[in-house]
Amino acid sequence: MAKPRIVAPGGSLDKAILAFNYGADAVYVGANEFGLRKSSDNFSFPEIETLCTYAKQRKKSVYLTLNIFPHESDLKRLTSFLTTIDSLGLDALIISDIGLCKLAKEHASIPIHTSTQASILNTESAKMWVDLGATRIVLAREASLAESYHIKQHAGCEV
Fold it and tell me: Region 84-97: what's the mean pLDDT?
């Protein structure tokens, strides 16, 4: 059985580094655009790159949340954004929208994890995300332990 990993919120560059220094195996952070937490201390491109470098030196991971539900007017900026972040050294993108998942597969080579906001509560939904390219599924908070176990057994990816 694999050892559980501690994944902590990054919050800011200082908070993310503290999380690593106190034992987190990975942090998730938001960029200045395309995250649900607009009032949080989100990261600029240089801060993401700095954090990724710091993490790699310590064999840690950085996940970027792109958990918005984009409007049509967001799509062109998202395409450019995905191309730009592809070289920053991220370990995964946390995504909740299937259209954004498709764009991420087309314009970046970063693994995709589903966000809990995708509300995955069954095997069919999990398999659909895997078919779209997700390598890890973060189930909805409402999933019971028994449901989670069943999905883990049949989804074909990390849960």
Answer: 95
